[in-house]
Specification:
343 residues, alpha/beta, Quinone Oxidoreductase, Chain A, domain 1, Rossmann fold, 2 domains, seven-stranded mixed sheet, six-stranded parallel sheet, 12 helices, globular, NAD(P)-bd_dom_sf
């Protein structure tokens, strides 16, 4: 099969490689579209500590089920359009038993610890595979994985109907968290972002997101105005930068919740005094639990806000132009989701 292989950092090439050989209870999927994630870019640049070349990257995808290897009954049919949660845990540890295999100590993420979806075919555990309706645009279905990240983040925050939300960072995951927060009943969703094009993009979503631009606004006074001097019930720090870490403790209300979503390139300082004095709850989140991936499949399958999701797909490349797509993802600061089309 053909695949995009990172042979060494900053060098990805199309190659003929062996088709994956199925083990028991595994499925083979022919990939239709794959999304480029920030993690894929970090791997390509050599900034990911766990991913080592040679490696087929990619973990966001949609495709067709072509083969299964099991003697069990499965509620899937060959030829169906499917997605799959792109990670596995050991299945035996305390965390896996709790349904938290996303933080298993033996976590295997496709495209990082093992070969991913920038290829003609990918093999996955059958228990991770979900069918999707034929009448849903496959490009939108390719967004299930990043939507699952947002579903996981919002669910872990225990956001209640009527609460106020601040999202620090208006990139793809930030926008998806904002959409899910609205779906979950947040009364006010505010996004902090400095990129003017991303600000306009969020405003043009017509989902009544309110914006803060820390480069132009008096942030403290605007937060007070938006929250009646209370601060936000839930703050999602998605930027992964020091300025975001500084803002999150200021913006959260007394007794509020902070969700650490963005992955920083280096450790940041946090105002632990504010955490103590305001009795803040802080929680880290990583990828998504399978129950939240399943919820994302359901949201897209039911066409709840697919018209909004489609707007996130700003660029598309053929898989043969994968190097160009990766370089574009690095250099262009205004795009949202870049898709690779498998021919």
């Amino acid at each position: 099969m053909k695949a995009a292989v990172i042979e060494e950092f900053n060098n990805i090439v199309m190659k003929e490689v062996l088709e994956p050989e199925l083990g028991y209870d595994e499925a083979l999927i022919k990939v239709e579209y794959a999304g480029i994630c920030g993690t894929d870019v970090h791997i390509y640049q050599g900034h990911h500590k766990q991913a080592k070349p040679p490696l087929i990257p990619g973990h966001e995808f949609v495709g067709r089920l072509v083969k299964v290897n099991t003697d069990k009954h499965v509620n899937l049919k060959i030829g169906q359009r499917v997605v799959a949660q792109p990670l596995t845990g050991c299945g035996k540890c305390e965390l896996c038993i709790q349904g938290r295999d996303n933080v298993c100590v033996d976590l295997n993420i496709f495209g990082i610890h093992s070969n991913g979806c920038f290829a003609e075919y990918i093999k996955v555990p059958l228990r991770k595979v979900y069918s999707v309706p034929e009448d849903i645009d496959p490009k939108i279905v390719a967004l299930v994985e990043p939507l699952a990240v947002a579903m996981h983040d919002v669910r872990r925050s225990n956001l209640d109907v009527g609460q106020t939300v601040l999202i620090i960072g208006g990139g793809p995951i930030g926008i998806l968290i904002a959409m899910v927060a609205k779906l979950n009943g947040a009364s006010k969703v505010v996004i902090s972002e400095i990129n003017e094009k991303r600000i306009k993009f969020a405003e043009d979503m017509n989902m009544r997101f309110e914006m803060i631009n820390p480069l132009k606004d008096d942030v403290d006074s605007k937060i007070n105005k938006l929250t009646n001097n209370m601060g936000f019930d839930v703050v999602y720090e998605v930027s992964g930068v020091q300025a975001g870490a500084d803002l999150m403790t200021k913006a959260a209300k007394i007794g509020g919740t902070i969700m650490m979503v963005g992955i920083p390139s280096k450790s940041h300082t946090v105002d632990t005094g504010a955490v103590t004095l305001k009795e803040l709850k802080m929680e880290g989140v990583r990828i998504h639990a399978q129950i939240n991936f399943a919820a994302a499949v359901d949201v897209i399958s039911k066409n709840i806000f697919n018209d909004k999701l489609k707007r996130l797909i700003t660029d598309e490349f053929d898989i043969e132009n994968v190097k160009e797509a990766m370089e574009f993802s690095i250099k262009d600061k205004d795009h949202f989701k870049v898709l690779l089309k498998m021919n």
